[in-house]
Amino acid sequence: MSLTLEHFSHPKHSLVLKDFDVVGDDAICHVCDTSVIGSLTYTCSRSSDDAECQGFYLHKSCAELPTPITFYKHNHHPLILRDLVGGYCDVCYNHVMKFSYVCSDDCGFVVCVFCAFQQRALDHPGHEQHTLTLVPRESLFACDACSEEANDSSYICTTCDFWIHKKCALSPLTIPNPTYHRHPLDLIYFIPKMHRYFKRYCNICKKPIRKESWLYYCHKCTYFVHMKCATSSHSSPSDIAILTAPDPPIINEHWSRKEHPLVQFQFSTSENDNNEKKYDRRELICDGCIQPITIFHPSYYACMKCGFFLHSFCATKLPRVLVANGFFYHCKTCNITIDIRCAFLPTKIKHKSHNHHSLVYRPSFKFECSVSGYTIGGGVQYGCGTCGNFQIDIDSAFYPGSMKHRYDDHPVTLRRPPFFYEGVFYCEICEDQVNNQWWLYHCDECDHSFHNDCLLSGGSVKLGRTVEVDINDQSHTLALVLKRRTRKTQSEYFCRYCGNGYKSNHFLECDGCGYLICCPCVSQIKASNKSIHF
Predict the structure, then answer these.
(1) How far apart, in whole angstroms, are the C-alpha atoms of residue 158 and residue 175?
(2) CA 237 to the chain's CA centroid
(3) Using an 8 Å Cβ cutoff, are 215 and 226 in contact?
(4) Is 188 or 275 the better-scoring residue by pLDDT?
(5) Where are the transmembrane segments (predicted)?
(6) Of 41, 78, 128, 178, which one has the fewest beta carbons inside 10 Å?
(7) Is the pLDDT at 280 greater than 70, yes or no?
(8) Contact 75/59 with Cβ under 8 angstroms?
């Protein structure tokens, strides 16, 4: 096998054959304009010295394409490989991006490299039942492999209406050395059954993966990647959609300022924005949290008559009730309660899950926590101001790195993926499956795993405190307890007063008769200061 090659597509320098591991994830062949991942590849021998030659790649097969050739649809003249930009293939009618075979007799016949050599019949392990047939003409359809809708030529099964993009059909069966993961990735055609207990997400774009879609997978550490993400190093975690409804543009009677309506604005550094002529925009201070309104959290409400300002978060998202029974701070004027731990949280932290940037204390926008996988509720979170797509909820930020407890003879350690474990994890407390795409507690010595919330379910609440409440003319001594389902099939816990059911919640329970009532209902009963009759 020759290690160097002279090729007319790159006359400046000779080409050298490289191994897989020197090729970037976004490397594209100069001839066929497709990825070179998983293929023997030629690159420019001077690419390290010449900036113009960096990123020049040729599949070994493309570099050694024969010329001239004969083609079944134009067999009266030979076809010659040429650099032709701007033409159209007479077979698939697609635009020719770079190289194509053209008629040596100048009769105008052009065929792209794909159509010249593409297999018209394909046996693929992703559809073993029948042979797939190439339909060279491009059309828009939803692919049965990647589930994406895109314009592409296709391979179809005429027996069972199976239809996939040509790009998907020709994707490598293995990506041997991906730059974003330490193990090879194999092409699989559905999520393995043992990993279907949880909803699975792409480890690059963080979007869900369909159970029956083709994807790349590392079985050693339960690592899933969409097909389109696996072959693009430019794929980055996408912005996760905000789960709440849009804020109203006008709040007519806000509880903090009922006399005037509050109008929503967007903070801007533009000198032409005259929404607040009377005020210096650089000094807008939220009257709720007493923090500046800045470009980083630009949405805010204002009463222009009296110079009253609120972040949109402070106006619409602050929880009116906090569950805690320790010391707390309370503002009688605003009726705002703050847990003592929250009052002294640091404004900036370093966290091992994101150790290349600091995380700053900021309002929560109901994103998904980047380490626990749970949706961050209303309140605050720590987020990266540099990356913009990393956020961690308050509880996860302060998970203990290791702990000793009664369920294990050894300390358990907080672990983050990837986990080099071929199988699934089960929690030693609830015996339910643990999602190994997120953080979990694990003991290496005895191979025990635990849900984070099974070990750390108490929160800022001291259980066992009691309260005297009269219900139906009967006095109950209620103790504070935590009730939570330990299995998905287990029924919810229901409040005997309001009838609401909960998967997990703090309740007050009567030791004598087992009467169960949720905390908001107890607060309502005590506020009314009278017995409740059903």
Answers:
(1) 30
(2) 6
(3) yes
(4) 188
(5) none
(6) 128
(7) no
(8) no
Q: What is the pLDDT of residues 225-252, one digit of tens each?
A: 998 888 664 333 333 232 335 566 788 8
Q: What is the dihedral of CA 317, 320, 325, 327, to 10 degrees?
A: 80
Structure tokens at 408: 């294990």
Map tokens 């970037």 to a residue: 24
At position 530, the amino acid (one-letter code) is K
CB-based contacts of 232, cutoff 8 Å, min separation 6? 25, 26
5-60 pLDDT, tens digit each? 888 888 888 888 876 545 566 678 887 777 777 678 888 887 767 777 777 888 88
Angle (CA) 232-240-440 rounded to 5° is: 90
Strand, helix or coil for residue 282: helix
d(CA 183, CA 205): 19
Task: Give CA–CA dist 494/502, Å, rounded.
Answer: 6
Q: Using a CB cutoff of 8 Å and minimum separation of 24, what contacts does 476-480 make? A: 476/510, 476/512, 476/513, 476/515, 477/510, 477/511, 477/512, 478/508, 478/509, 478/510, 478/515, 478/517, 478/522, 479/508, 479/509, 479/510, 479/511, 480/325, 480/506, 480/507, 480/508, 480/519
For the chain, list the domains and their CATH numbers: 4-63 (no CATH), 69-117 (no CATH), 121-169 (3.30.60), 174-230 (3.30.60), 250-316 (no CATH), 328-397 (no CATH), 402-455 (3.30.60), 466-528 (no CATH)
What is the signed CA dihedral for 9, 15, 19, 20, rounded to 10 degrees?
-20
pLDDT at 215: 92
- 173-177 LR contacts (CB < 8 Å, sep 24+): 173/38, 173/125, 174/38, 175/37, 175/38, 175/216, 175/230, 175/231, 176/20, 176/21, 176/38, 177/20, 177/21
How is residue 26 written in tokens?
């976004």
- 363 Cβ partners below 8 Å, 6+ apart? 297, 311, 313, 314, 317, 379, 380, 381
Count Cα atoms within 13 angstroms, Cβ side, for 288: 22
For residue 207, how far is the Cα from the chain centroid? Answer: 5
- What are the residues facing 474 on neighbouring strands? 471
Q: Which residue has the higher pLDDT, 93 or 321?
A: 93
Say how many residues make up the chain: 534
DSSP state of 249: S
HEC assignment per residue over 117-183: HCCCEECCHHHCCCCEEEEEEEEEEECCCCCCEEEEEEEEECCCCEEEEHHHHCCCCEECCCCCCCC
Answer whether 248's CB lies under 8 Å from 288's CB: no
d(C-alpha 487, C-alpha 505), whole Å: 15
